[in-house]
Amino acid sequence: MSAATSLAAGLLAGLTRLITGVRARWVCTAPSTAARVYFANHASHLDTLVIWASLPKALRTRVRPVAAADYWGKSRLRRWLATEVLNALLVERSGGSGSREALHSLVTTLKAGDSLILFPEGTRGDGSAVGALRPGLYFVAEQCPDVELIPVHLHNLSRILPKGELLPVPIMGSATFGAPMHLRPGEHRDSFLNRARAAILDLGEGQ
Ligand SMILES: CCCCCCCCCCCCCCCC(=O)OC[C@@H](O)COP(=O)(O)O
């Protein structure tokens, strides 16, 4: 990492903490150096930053956000922020052969020992509900059965920086990390995806 990207990464992590008050709660799990998939509800550009800034600094360089290539590859600034500062993997989200390549790069990354941050809804919602999960998480779980899948519930971040806004409103947000899940033997795709979505929602109960 160059001095400029490392400075930008430090600034982004510090700003994220300042703006969101980022309270990370670890429920039935703790930070780990093992390759993991952190999967969360998605409604704000802050989501990735909050999960990333919640991890101990030493783990941050080993966790790779999965980012939509059509959005984060669009301008030089976005590409730099995503791929250089946050070490994101750019993937196609349009389906077809792009999905096969995306799955391959996710699995290769996990097998190399790095973790992923994944937003299985595939797009930002308005923060009022968690949408249906796309099947990528299931295929990753199938191909990497030993990797811990950690549900994360992000609270309030879409009120701080909603989709389409550029200036954040400083109010408190939080990230709740839940117990690791795995694909169960013989578990059907839709059952697994419903269980994963329910795991995110359960962590947000009472907030
Ligand atoms: C306003 C300034 C905010 C600066 C934020 C810098 C954050 C860099 C984050 C880079 C990696 C982000 C990966 C997020 C996952 C993802 O790619 O979700 C899709 C949305 O993103 C855009 O698609 P959409 O919600 O459909 O508009």
Characterization of the model:
- The protein has 207 residues and is an alpha/beta fold.
- The chain has helices spanning 3-20, 46-54, 57-60, 69-72, 76-85, 97-111, 136-143, 157-160, 189-204; strands at 23-26, 36-40, 63-68, 89-91, 115-118, 148-155, 174-177.
- Helix content is 43%, strand content 16%.
- It has a seven-stranded mixed sheet, sandwiched between helices.
- α1 crosses α2 and α6 crosses α7.
- The model has no long low-confidence stretch (mean pLDDT 93).
- Residues 45, 48-49, 65, 67-68, 71-72, 81-82, 86, 88, 119, 123-124, 166 line the site of (2R)-2-hydroxy-3-(phosphonooxy)propyl hexadecanoate.
- (2R)-2-hydroxy-3-(phosphonooxy)propyl hexadecanoate is lined by residues 45, 48-49, 65, 67-68, 71-72, 81-82, 86, 88, 119, 123-124, 166.
